[in-house]
């Protein structure tokens, strides 16, 4: 069965690992419009900085359990000494990446999310505006055709940082845009693309 799975044409970045192939086939590149889901994915992509995505993917459940299912309202409500205590507990959590700056970034991002919401901005609409509200179909033939950042990801990064988010550089933002389907970077011969035509 595994041989049959591997025989399917996929984008080569997901390799042979079944969990990575499943993520590629069922999650990566499929448009996401739910604000909370987008927030969670952006936070997880920030945790990836300096690491491979598969590392974070395999820790996703632990992150969701540790960070209140990435509920920005609940995270933002944790302030002051309570937040400091929360961070200290997570620094002992072997299920996540124990990096204080990255742990704090999830709270900073929740604060930014709530600042946008309090200003009347819908988070999903705020993010999708950088691609004009529609999927950008890149149609790459090979991995070398896929950029690591674009003017749109640079603009998103700048706007998010202005709102208080961090670990949202233009490369992280582009990886996020790929993952949540703002851009379609599945290779032309990838089965996900050919089956969705």
UniProtKB/TrEMBL annotation:
Coiled coil: none annotated. SUPFAM superfamilies: DNA-glycosylase. It comes from Aliidiomarina sedimenti. This is DNA-3-methyladenine glycosylase I. InterPro entries: Adenine_glyco (IPR005019), DNA-3mA_glycosylase (IPR052891), DNA_glycosylase (IPR011257). Gene3D superfamilies: Hypothetical protein, domain 2. It holds the Pfam family Adenine_glyco. It comes from the Bacteria. Transmembrane segments: none annotated.
């Amino acid at each position: 069965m595994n041989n049959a799975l591997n025989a399917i044409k996929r984008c080569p970045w997901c390799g042979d690992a079944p969990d990575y192939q499943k993520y590629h086939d069922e999650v990566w590149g499929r448009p996401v419009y739910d604000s909370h889901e987008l927030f969670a994915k952006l936070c997880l992509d920030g945790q990836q900085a300096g690491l491979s995505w598969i590392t974070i993917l395999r820790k996703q459940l632990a992150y969701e359990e540790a960070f209140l299912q990435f509920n920005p309202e609940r995270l933002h409500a944790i302030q002051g000494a309570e937040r400091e205590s929360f961070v200290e507990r997570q620094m002992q959590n072997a299920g996540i990446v124990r990096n204080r700056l990255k742990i704090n970034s999830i709270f900073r991002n929740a604060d930014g999310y709530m600042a946008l919401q309090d200003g009347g901005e819908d988070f999903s609409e705020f993010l999708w505006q950088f691609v004009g509200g529609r999927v950008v179909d890149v149609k790459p033939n090979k991995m070398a055709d896929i950029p690591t950042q674009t003017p749109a990801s640079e603009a998103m990064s700048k706007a998010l940082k202005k709102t208080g988010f961090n670990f949202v550089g233009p490369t992280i933002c582009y990886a996020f845009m790929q993952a949540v389907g703002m851009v379609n970077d599945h290779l032309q011969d990838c089965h996900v693309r050919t089956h969705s035509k």
